[in-house]
Amino acid sequence: MKIDWKNWKHVTKLDPDKQLPPESVEEIVTSGTDALMLSGTLNVTKENLTVLREQVKQYGVPMVVEPADPSGVIFEEVQGLFVPSVLNTPDPTWIIGKHESWVKKDANIRWDLVVPEAYIVLNPKSSVGRVTKAICDLPKEDVCAFAKVADKYFNFPIVYIEYSGTYGNPEIVKAVSETIEDSVLYYGGGINCGEKAAEMGKYADTIVVGNAVYDNGSKALKETVRAVQ
């Protein structure tokens, strides 16, 4: 399956470290979302990724894996591998270090599936913020500068504004949308209803909905889909 990820409006992020109730899997996967992103920061392994993939693959929705670490990479029966680099961290491990380690250890990388993401993490209390030691208290001008570096200097296909677990500042997302020209703008964080989805969907090319799946269920997820589709 060839994926048209540049035109996705809505992506549902599913965490391999969290349990999906079997009775709700079908409603979540067939909500109308454009794609499923199998992704998490903590305790993600090939084993639990594979379990999650098996739960959802039968519905024919495009699936991509977003690994936090080389140990959480699978290529089989997925249509993309979205690989993040966190730009606003002082620790190069999360910018390029994990990536170098992965390339050194794996001679069979499916490069045709790889889509690099420039992450700008803006919630210091989030797992990804804590693990990567991201500098999150950035003014709008600094966020836009990071985004332009990603877009024009490094040519990242995706710039990802990540508030992970909390709803972000629409003015920052709007400013980034007006700054970048070539990258696709993803937004993730705190979208748990149609109103928030519509607001961020005005500025981001693609919204990513994750925690709402587990906290609010399929009804809330479907609201977010309808708001941007």
What does this structure look like?
This protein has helices at residues 25-29, 46-56, 97-105, 127-132, 140-153, 170-179, 194-201, 211-215, 217-228; strands at 10-14, 35-39, 63-66, 80-86, 114-121, 158-162, 184-188, 206-209. The model has no long low-confidence stretch (mean pLDDT 93). The protein has one domain (7-228): FMN-linked oxidoreductases (TIM Barrel, Alpha-Beta Barrel). An eight-stranded parallel beta barrel has the order 1-2-3-4-5-6-7-8, surrounded by five helices. It is an alpha/beta fold and 229 residues long. It is globular and about 45 Å long.
Q: pLDDT below 50 for ≥5 consecutive residues: which ranges?
A: none
Alpha-beta content class? alpha/beta
Q: Look up the CATH topology.
A: TIM Barrel
The number of E-state strands comes to 8
CA distance, first residue to last residue: 21 Å
Number of structural domains: 1
Strand content: 15-25%
Q: Find the CATH superfamily.
A: FMN-linked oxidoreductases
Helix-strand string: EHEHEEHEHHEHEHEHH
Helix content: 25-40%
Biggest beta sheet summary = 8 strands, parallel, barrel
Mean pLDDT: 93
Shape: globular
CATH architecture term = Alpha-Beta Barrel
Gyration radius from CA atoms, angstroms: 16 Å
Instruction: Name the strands of the widest sheet in spatial order.
Output: 1-2-3-4-5-6-7-8
